[in-house]
Amino acid sequence: MAYALDHCLDTPPATAYVGVVLDSQGNLQSDLAILSSSGYAILDEAARATIQQHDFSPPAELTAYSIEVEIENYPDDCPERT
């Protein structure tokens, strides 16, 4: 999954990993857990919201997943930080 970013940050964000549990109908069965942060709480929340809106294919049985959410389109014209 990806989340598009359209403004500069002090430090480019990392890829976030979100834990989810799906039932056999593809429904979320627990709160989403940030397993590895992007480094920005607001982007972690955006990753959560993106996943909550996703239509998952149902697994055969109750299954836990770690979903990678890349922060895309970090603007090329951002000033270089030292």
TrEMBL record:
GO terms for biological process: transmembrane transport. This is TonB C-terminal domain-containing protein. InterPro entries: TonB/TolA_C (IPR006260), TonB_C (IPR037682). Keywords: Membrane, Transmembrane, Transmembrane helix. GO terms for cellular component: membrane. Residues 17-69 form the TonB C-terminal domain. The keyword Lipid biosynthesis does not apply. It is found in: Membrane. The keyword Transmembrane helix applies. Pfam families: TonB_C. It is a single-pass membrane protein.
